[in-house]
Amino acid sequence: MTRYLVTGAGGMLGHDLLAVLDGRDVTAATRAELDITDAAKVRDVVEGHDVVLNAAAWTDVDGAESDEAGATAVNGTGVATLATACAATGARLLHVSTDYVFAGDATEPYAEDAPTAPLNAYGRSKLAGERAVLRTLPETGYVVRTAWLYGTHGNNFVRTMLRLARERDFVEVVDDQVGQPTWSRDLAERLVALAGAGAPAGVYHGTASGQTSWHGLAEAVFEGAGHDPARVHRTTSAAFVRPAPRPSYSVLGHARWAAAGLAPLRPWPEMLRDMLAATSEGGAR
């Protein structure tokens, strides 16, 4: 029987990974239970597992701008520590990365082997983790890049829009950033499927099919929850200056799923519909 270890089990994606793995032999390690920068503890926890699903990460994009060393300690060095432990025990590692490893200036979807060029400290820290996995585990390491992730747990854009739909007359949302909104439950299902597919190691893109802007996503959230989508007003990124620059184009290509015998993830509107149906916040108040 396959033994799974889920790191970052207390987070949004971690919750969904545990739900998908329900009934299997799983060890759940929250951030409090496993600091992936602690090499000795990582070695002890990884021992005895066949598959490690790494959902542990520094996710504060803006915070990374003022503490790149801290972000890299988790997203780079910590991931390298996990990879080294997996190499020592023979475990497969599925590591979740991000669209932020790209510059975001493309005009067509980024292929899995497209050149990387992070715009910010967070992206650089995540790229360091990717490289560690691919270097240390060339035959058993998987990097799955995702983007615009949301879910029924934790803080995320969709849940924020649901709250603001109840609290405000209108919201302003940028329409000059384009990406692929992805439900964390769908990503969790795909990660588990990839772990059991006997697929070639390397980079995969775990994002929904299709694309939209943040404004388009917000409109869809309002409408799906029974609110008037006209209450979502357009604005630009210039109106929301943040410490870390964001890529304007975060659309990823999915060609490599064919090597795993899996189809690309489903369209983002289908994911959103099912997420709204799965949360008590999905209905109008």
Task: Set out the fold topology.
Layout: E1 3-7, H1 12-20, E2 25-29, H2 39-46, E3 51-54, H3 61-66, H4 68-89, E4 92-98, H5 121-136, E5 141-146, E6 149-150, H6 157-167, E7 171-174, E8 178-179, E9 182-183, H7 184-195, E10 202-205, E11 212-213, H8 214-224, E12 232-235, E13 249-250, H9 268-278
Parallel strand pairs: 1-2, 1-3, 3-4, 4-5, 5-10, 6-9, 7-12, 8-13
Antiparallel strand pairs: 8-11
**CATH class designation of one domain:** Alpha Beta
What is the radius of gyration computed over CA atoms, rounded to a whole number of angstroms? Answer: 18 Å
| Overall CATH architecture of one domain | 3-Layer(aba) Sandwich
Give the ordered list of helices and strands.
EHEHEHHEHEEHEEEHEEHEEH
CATH level-4 homologous superfamily of one domain: NAD(P)-binding Rossmann-like Domain
Report helical residue fraction. 25-40%
The biggest sheet, with number of strands, parallel, antiparallel or mixed sense and barrel status, is: 6 strands, parallel
Runs in which pLDDT lies below 50 for 5 or more consecutive residues are: none
CATH topology of one domain: Rossmann fold
The 3D shape can be described as globular
Q: How many E strands?
A: 13
Strand arrangement, major sheet = 2-1-3-4-5-10
Distance between the termini: 46 Å
Structural class: alpha/beta
